[in-house]
Amino acid sequence: xxxxxxxxxxxxxxxxxxxxxxxxxxxxxxxxxxxxxxxxxxxxxxxxxxxxxxxxxxxxxxxxxxxxxxxxxxxxxxxxxxxxxxxxxxxxxxxxxxxxxxxxxxxxxxxxxxxxxxxxxxxxxxxxxxxxxxxxxxxxxxxxxxxxxxxxxxxxxxxxxxxxxxxxxxxxxxxxxxxxxxxxxxxxxxxxxxxxxxxxxxxxxxxxxxxxxxxxxxxxxxxxxxxxxxxxxxxxxxxxxxxxxxxxxxxxxxxxxxxxxxxxxxxxxxxxxxxxxxxxxxxxxxxxxxxxxxxxxxxxxxxxxxxxxxxxxxxxxxxxxxxxxxxxxxxxx
Length: 333
Prior knowledge:
It is built from 14 helices and 12 strands. The strands form 2 sheets. The chain has an 8-stranded parallel barrel, surrounded by 8 helices. A two-stranded antiparallel ribbon has the order 6-7. Helix 2 links the parallel strand 2 (33-36) and strand 3. The protein is 48% helix and 17% strand. By secondary structure, the protein is of the alpha/beta class. The relative contact order is 0.13. The protein is globular. The chain starts with a strand and ends with a helix. It folds into 2 domains: 3-219 and 291-329, TIM Barrel; 222-289. It has helices spanning 16-29, 44-53, 72-85, 99-105, 113-129, 165-174, 185-201, 223-240, 244-251, 255-266, 270-275, 279-285, 291-299, 320-329, and strands spanning 3-7, 33-36, 59-62, 65-66, 90-95, 133-136, 141-145, 158-161, 177-181, 210-219, 287-289, 309-313.
């Protein structure tokens, strides 16, 4: 049975307490994992610590923590600590983010994101083992580091996000799971083939790896408003967050639409960018509608073979009431 997760809002929330309350509601409603993104607001480690202290059963995780903003050793320490304070409920989701974020906001060279992600995963896993870390890589050369505290037991899973074929193959080969985003059902199946190939190349036990699809959802009594919020969110990512999301959509056979959205958005014509995304494609990327209609639409994404969990995500402009409405409408049965 496909697990159902909740992806805490990527947009700024009123307070840390609001995020804690959303995680508590997710626990009450039976969601399996509460994922927290780390962008340019509150940091994930502090916020997840607060959530861990105020919940009991729901798993918690980062989706995603950028591999450029912390050293791999520090990421390993943070993962070990979060596993401790959550009493074994933590999952670590890592990813490179993109050059706009990494170079403009963190002042770091983006470089080769695949190689850096792989080396970070390798080192983090060594740190979490409790053994002394010895690593000679292209980006990192470590020796002599060892946790001063007990190694976490169980060791938290280390998962990665990725969009392109090579990034997803890398997740299958070296990570404990893959976080998928902004994919149609057909596009998801194509990338699942990359993940399975990577898993075979790494001689991994696929049954111990977890694929999580993050799905933007908006379930409101006002169906038109739900659609507007979901579409606005998709267009923002395709047009305003660098070229990764645009290229990801183009790879799925929608190059003309992807370029039209991106070009109009970059030109400052948000209305034209919205109009460039047709409804039939929007329905393949996001979920919206009345509570009943949205649930029926959501269920079409839960039967893709190879996906272990689908995460209910929210439009960046959704308010607290709209977030709660969506969480309740799509809660696990």
